[in-house]
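Hi V.,

You were right to ask for the full record rather than a summary. Here it is.
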Amino acid sequence: MNLEGNFFVEKPRAAVWALINDPDVLRQAIPGCQSLEAVDEGYAATVTIAIGPVKAKFNGRVKLQDVQAPESYRISGEGSGGIAGFAKGGANVRLEETDGGTTIHYAVDAAIGGKLAQLGSRLIESTSKKLSGQFFERIAEIARGA
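Predicted structure:
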């Protein structure tokens, strides 16, 4: 599954870059995130999400690659949700300075397996779009308060 989009934040690119690289901000912005800790070249995370009738707690790792501060990076990760299955994927994130702020461009690729994969691609895709939207809306809220 692939999703693309963009989101506008009323802050300079350097400030947005700092936000999307701050573990405390990421913990607040990732829907269902219970913990996010810096480890090695990335983060260890615990996230609980519900897709249709299946609710799962995922434990996994997230790492940043191809970092070109303050312009872009690739964030990738994978996690296990026990009997619910697994999820893995990533996002290419690019920050573009625009009038009055910064536009965040993103392209997400994700794959799931186990019980979650049996739910159907439409439900999974709509949930993924919703969660992506919530993440970027939360980043914008945090930016407005920062």
